[in-house]
Specification:
- The chain folds into two domains: 274 residues, Aminopeptidase (3-Layer(aba) Sandwich); 115 residues, Alpha-Beta Plaits, CATH 3.30.70.
- The protein contains ten helices and 20 strands.
- A six-stranded mixed β-sheet has the order 1-2-6-3-7-18, with helices on both faces. Strands 4-5-20-19 form a four-stranded antiparallel β-sheet.
- Bound molecules: zinc ion.
- The site of zinc ion has 5 residues, from helix 4.
């Protein structure tokens, strides 16, 4: 096949693509439904093997699908997952055409449409060239942070030169045939800390005999919120606070949380240090008792950002060039939430995300995609991969 035959080839795949998508959507792969997730993994593995790809199991439950002869560079890792957020007992289980090219179903956009886009792109690439190395990882538990495969990502995964996430291509407005679709150049990182401030409780009639934990927590909260720096993409939020037992008691204990979002690993580490400094300082002192307030805390979550950098911008430019050539409306966007691309980026691999299906209402029972847009995205990803593996992108490692 020549690149100029690509549109025709994609068209010839419509029926098989749609039936594969329907089959996958109708397998319930809620994260905690491990039997369903494993069944989805087996179904995709069989499909990949029928295409002649090799399938490896990683960290017991996840899959790595390898296309190409492994000789070409750059090596590219597509990022996907099998799990969804819809439990087996929810009413939302079916793949359902809505007319005008829209289809609804659990995970149809996040991320089974992306899975299909990835698989068919690898298939087409094999028809277009010989020397290439494109692999797709499928996480079994991305919706809970890819807990059981995170070490594989952070430990260097396959040593890819680039990673491309197949999370949905987010429409910039209502999902229509010609709405702009996003390609994600940056995802912020996220951290969360839970803490307990301890003072000394006493009757409010003799307040001088206590150490007020509510005031000690409030002092911290005011200082924590001063770390907000929107211009540099840093937001800090005290989202939970709970303390006291009655209006007439000096509170001896307050429990709370602080979370922060950031664009670069360096900012994330710096803000974490500043938060810890604010938390561990003391704010209340009772000289009669020689007693300060004190704090216990633990870092609950620390997800590194998918950083914007020169190398991932080169990949974004390639996506924009190819979308323009194909007359598709694609715009670069930043997203607040994380995906597995955060992990590959933290491992030092230039990463982009949002190259999956045009989707709306993900994680709700109105989740839908625009099917002609999914075929466009297959064509776009194939074109980007083809350009990448035939010399448009540098190899870093
Ligand atoms: Zn997803």
């Amino acid at each position: 096949m020549q690149l100029s035959d690509l549109s025709q080839w994609v068209e010839s795949q419509h029926t098989v693509v749609e039936s594969a998508l329907k089959e996958l959507v109708e397998i319930n792969t809620f994260t905690r439904n491990t039997i369903g997730v494993d069944k989805g993994m087996d179904t995709v593995s069989k499909l990949a093997q029928s295409f002649g790809f090799t399938v490896e199991v990683i960290n017991q439950r996840h899959r790595l699908i390898k296309a190409g002869n492994g000789k070409g560079r750059p090596r590219i890792l597509l990022l996907c997952h099998m799990d969804t957020v819809f439990p087996p007992d929810s009413a939302f289980q079916k793949y359902e055409p809505l007319g005008d090219g829209f289809v609804q179903g659990p995970g149809v956009g996040d991320i089974k449409g992306g899975l299909i886009i990835g698989l068919w792109s690898m298939l087409a690439l094999r028809e277009l060239c010989d020397d290439f190395d494109v692999q797709m990882v499928i996480s079994a538990d991305e919706e809970i942070g890819s807990q059981s495969i995170q070490d594989w990502y952070l430990g260097g995964h396959i040593g890819a030169d680039y990673a491309i996430g197949l999370e949905p291509g987010f429409p910039q407005g209502e999902l229509t045939a010609d709405v702009d679709l996003g390609v994600v150049y940056q995802r912020r990182g996220y951290g969360a800390i839970y803490y307990t401030v301890t003072g000394k409780a006493c009757h409010s009639g003799t307040a001088h005999l206590g150490v007020n934990a509510i005031e000690a927590a409030a002092q911290r909260i005011i200082r924590l919120h001063q770390l907000n720096d929107w211009e540099n993409g840093i937001s800090v939020t005290c989202g939970l606070v709970n303390g006291g037992i009655s209006p007439n008691t000096v509170s001896g204990e307050v429990k709370g949380s602080v979370s922060w979002r950031f664009e670069t690993q360096a900012d994330g580490e710096r803000i974490k240090r500043e938060i810890e400094k604010i938390l561990t300082d003391t704010y209340q002192y009772n000289p009669d008792l020689d007693l300060h307030d004190s704090i216990d805390y633990h870092v609950d979550t620390l997800l590194q950002p998918m950083e914007r950098n020169e190398a991932n911008q080169n990949l974004i430019h390639l996506v924009l060039e190819e979308s323009k050539r194909l007359k598709q409306n694609v715009v670069p966007i930043a997203r607040g939430g994380g995906s597995d691309a955060n992990h590959t980026s933290a491992a030092g691999t230039p990463s982009i995300c949002g190259m999956g299906a045009p989707a709306q209402g993900i994680h709700t029972e109105q989740e839908k995609i625009y099917l002609p847009g999914l075929f466009n995205r297959i064509e776009l990803l194939i074109s980007v991969l083809y350009r990448a593996v035939t010399g448009a992108l540098e190899t870093h490692s």
